[in-house]
Write a structure and sequence with these properties.
Strand content: under 5%
Number of strands: 0
Structural class: mainly alpha
Helix content: 55-70%
Length: 173
């Protein structure tokens, strides 16, 4: 078992943890809070690090659970979590064509809204697989489900996004 360092093994995961928390909570401030709470929880369990097989999977699992707990708490308080993430990414290759740039920005915004409208399990699987690039095995470990369930959930999420995107593009809704 290798020696685990908070600075070298845990801190570099903060951006990945933030993206996962943001995908679940749909709120920048809440996602930042979740990441901070995750870091504190992981640090407080430093005596158990030697028994952890994958620090990354452990951190992602803690982050996911805290984000889900925060969602439940906010829902029970009747607060809205509809604050969408901030700025849209820009693509310099479209800078000379404003129409193309606007269409691309609209499409990216639409896909983000569609992903945000998915059930939490599908959002989490899409985030971990398509955005973070995790393997099915890693996702299964983080979410506590089988690899087959990960594949089915991912397929259904992608299918739902594709269908809704095509409907929206076709009918302009």
């Amino acid at each position: 078992m290798k020696e685990i360092s908070f600075r070298n093994d845990v801190l570099p995961l903060k951006n990945e943890l933030f993206r996962l928390a943001l995908r679940i909570t749909l709120n920048n401030a809440e996602a930042e809070d979740v990441v901070q709470e995750t870091m504190i929880k992981v640090w407080n369990r430093r005596d158990e690090w030697h028994a952890i097989e994958s620090m990354e999977a452990f951190c992602l699992t803690v982050c996911r659970n805290l984000a889900l707990d925060k969602n439940k708490k906010m829902a029970s308080q009747g607060r809205s979590m509809d604050d969408s993430p901030g700025a849209e990414p820009t693509d310099d290759s479209t800078a000379s064509n404003p129409e193309r740039k606007a269409m691309l920005t609209d499409s990216v915004s639409l896909v983000r809204r569609l992903i945000d409208s998915l059930p939490e399990a599908q959002r989490s699987v899409m985030q971990l697989r398509d955005i973070e690039g995790k393997s099915y095995k890693e996702i299964a470990a983080v979410l506590g489900i089988s690899e087959d369930r990960v594949k089915v959930t991912l397929f259904r999420a992608r299918q739902a996004i594709r269908q809704r995107f095509n409907e929206t593009e076709r009918y302009g809704l």
